[in-house]
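Fold Annotation — chain and its backbone
Encoding — discrete vocabulary of local shapes
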Amino acid sequence: MKILLPLVLLFWVTTAFAQSVTPPVFTPSGKNSAAFVPPNWFVKDSAQGDLNGDKIPDLALVVEMKDTIQELRPDHSTNLGSPRVLLLLLKEPSTGLYKLAFQNDTFILRYGEGGMELDPYGDLSIRNRVLEVMFQFVRGSDSYKFRYQQNEFMLIGATSSGTSVGQFEKWDFNFSTKKALHEWGDQAADKLKNGMEDLAPF
């Protein structure tokens, strides 16, 4: 009990000061990325490219709060970092304004959530109407691909790869075909083993 009590108190103090962040209300439309950045926030990263197939460049933004806080995350863990929000902006040809089409307040990893690589955030890119978000770790990386279809942004693919004790492993998930390519083997090998697997229903 003498050992348990301090641990319980430490847990209570950590969670008591953590807070679920209410993101700001972003403007529904604006002429540029600056219009979507509220006070005390800044654009951490951006990418430009056509997302909805009208051949007009759209915008993807990661905006970050300037303050560092103890944030309560969706998995009920706490993280000392700065909240980040993903915004996807579609440009309207008739007005030339960007319209806020998608907002996610929790998906982008924060500083402090990368293990030994304290900030796991990699970058954003838009190619062939697909938005890719990448996270980088000390011995691996994850990436997620979204496409605008049926009037919403949907996760269509993900890739996770890493090395451990000289062994390499990679999963490439295609949620459209419900298949996953699995590659693995010795890092020094000329050729990796591989196989295609069906994704379980979810």
